[in-house]
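To fix ideas, we give here one paired sequence and structure record:
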Amino acid sequence: MQTWNRYCWLGLLVALFTWTGCQKKGVDARKKKVQALMKELKSEETSKREHAAQELEKLGPYARPAIPMLVDALKDEESRVKYAAARALGKTKMANPQAAIGGLTRALKDADAQMRIEAIHAITNLGGVAALACVGVLRVMAKDPDEDEGVKAAIKKALIKIH
């Protein structure tokens, strides 16, 4: 019986070390992917920039190192890239969201109504203090008679979700 216990413990240790090694490989692979996507965000090709932002959105909190570049992408000349960057920022769920909030509040002033809607969704997805910090701005936007009706609807939903 003692031999059996030794084999069980040995098997358990092997499994633990294997799992730990796999975890490290997964972290390293994610870091490399984020770095590659950050380079892709600088591409001359719109489709590559858009793809990079979409992939960073899928990575959620693991995309945090790319936050400054995603904030810059909110100013992209191509709407598709800006929208994807806003959605990616909303998925980062960071503990300290000041960098993203700065860019997203600037995006609330964008001439493109759809960009403002994407920024509202991203702010709402960030939640917590970040979303609460934007409540005043959203209320002012909602009262603007010239504001787009789609934007006003997004604000209404956001304010309900935030509170």
Summary: The mean pLDDT is 86. The longest helix spans residues 2-40.
